Amino acid sequence: MNGMRKNKMKKIAEQLLSIKVVALSPNEPFTWASGLKSPIYCDNRLTMSYPEVRREIAQNLARKIKETYPGVEVIAGTATAGIPHAAWVAEILDLPMVYIRGKAKDHGKKNQIEGRITLQQKMVVIEDLISTGGSVIEACEAAKEEGADVLGVMAIFTYQLPKGVENFKKAELEVVTLTNYTELLEVALEHRYIKANDLDVLKSWKSNPAEWN
């Protein structure tokens, strides 16, 4: 079973690299919106444009949700990148779907959650990728305030940053991903997206990204 899971993680990583969702640049780092410098940039929104890839992602998210949270009653997507994946997963699982805004609207009913949930409804929240986890943790807190029973978070990819691990632990939230930074580097090396001498540089960033600023 572990071998099968590893193969599925590698397959997703291969797909993300092949359609250039993920870019690796150990010598000329990217600057994220937060100001953090990074040798990797991941834009999972691009997966929407590739039916085969988005289908693979949705099917694997649905499978993992059924395995990990068999009692789930509603699928939630984070605005905006988690919304399409949540919709596809909810369709596969034949479950209700909602989405969670970054903040409540300032007009109308001032909703933060769009769609309908019921008290103690068991929810899985879908995010596209995990860095420090701040936005999806806030989304989960908003869902809890509305009465949902948040079982956990599912995402396509995680950078595996220590700060993210710490934040989820503090929030007492479980997060499950289809693939991760470690798997991605293995696949990138195997398929020659990077050279062997880039590997140490890329690994060092994950351990301590602050050193790059």
Task: Kindly describe this structure.
This protein is an alpha/beta fold. About 40% of the residues lie in helices and about 20% in strands. The chain contains seven helices and ten strands. Strand 5, helix 3 and strand 6 form a beta-alpha-beta unit. The longest helix is centred in the first third of the chain and has 18 residues.
Gyration radius, rounded: 17 Å
Which residue ranges are poorly predicted, with pLDDT under 50 across at least 5 consecutive positions? none
Number of strands: 10
Helix and strand pattern: HEEEEHEHEEEHEHEHH
Helix and strand content put the structural class at: alpha/beta
What profile does the largest beta sheet have?
A: 6 strands, mixed
Give the oligomeric state: single chain
Helix content: 40-55%
Strand order of the largest sheet: 7-6-5-8-9-10
Notable characteristics:
two-stranded antiparallel sheet; 213 residues; six-stranded mixed sheet; alpha/beta; single chain
Topology at a glance:
Blueprint: H1 2-18, E1 22-24, E2 30-31, E3 37-38, E4 40-42, H2 51-68, E5 74-78, H3 83-93, E6 97-100, E7 113-114, E8 122-130, H4 134-145, E9 149-158, H5 162-171, E10 175-180, H6 181-190, H7 199-207
Parallel strand pairs: 5-6, 5-8, 8-9, 9-10
Antiparallel strand pairs: 1-4, 2-3, 6-7
